[in-house]
Design a protein that fits this description.
By secondary structure, the chain is mainly α. It contains 4 helices and no strands.
Length: 188
């Protein structure tokens, strides 16, 4: 292999570029799969944290309602017990203060951090998918050229063609066959 590079004054041969592209594409696909698994796991954790936060809110409502009813019941008696009534009021106030603070702390510490991690993983996955699309496009262009096809120039003046959902007419022609055949049937 060193002899081939020396014969070309150190320039890489197209065959070596294909191998490098295939390696890059395979590595990006591997990263994409790993990130997708992590993201799915964190999305499940986000749902569970949100469910738990909703359960805390519901439990708080039931607790407040129970204590309010107990206080009202004690007040409604003909001869209310002042000590019991004060005790119930004290419990109601303490419960409200402690429970609301606990639920708020849970939301800030657990729920928000889980959601933040899921958003971060989604952003990383989007970046990897963009890089993967870019490398696959380069590979498709390389394969088309190796087959002797002349590629039309991108109307957007993008070196590897239009990326994303919108493609100019030339890119639609260039990649209609090469991407479908080469990328799906490629060996990476």
């Amino acid at each position: 292999m060193n002899d081939k590079k020396n014969q070309n004054n150190g320039a890489s041969l197209p065959q070596e570029k294909k191998t490098q592209l295939e390696i890059q594409i395979a590595e990006l696909q591997k990263q994409e799969q790993q990130l997708a698994k992590q993201l799915k796991s964190w999305q499940i954790k986000t749902k569970k944290a949100n469910n738990l936060a909703n359960c805390l809110i519901t439990a708080g409502k039931f607790g407040k309602q129970f204590l309010t009813e107990a206080v009202e019941k004690e007040k409604a008696q003909e001869q209310p017990d002042n000590w019991a009534w004060e005790y119930l009021l004290k419990n109601k106030v303490e419960f409200n203060l402690k429970f609301e603070v606990g639920a708020e702390a849970f939301t800030k510490l657990v729920s928000e951090s889980v959601e933040r991690k899921a958003r971060t993983l989604q952003t990383e996955l989007d970046i990897i998918q963009s890089q993967l699309q870019h490398q696959e496009r380069k590979f498709a262009r390389l394969q088309a050229r190796r087959q002797g096809k002349t590629l039309l120039e991108c109307k957007s003046n993008n070196g590897i063609g239009c990326l994303g959902a919108y493609q100019c007419q030339n890119c639609q022609i260039n990649y209609s066959v090469s991407e479908n055949n080469q990328l799906k049937g490629g060996s990476y």
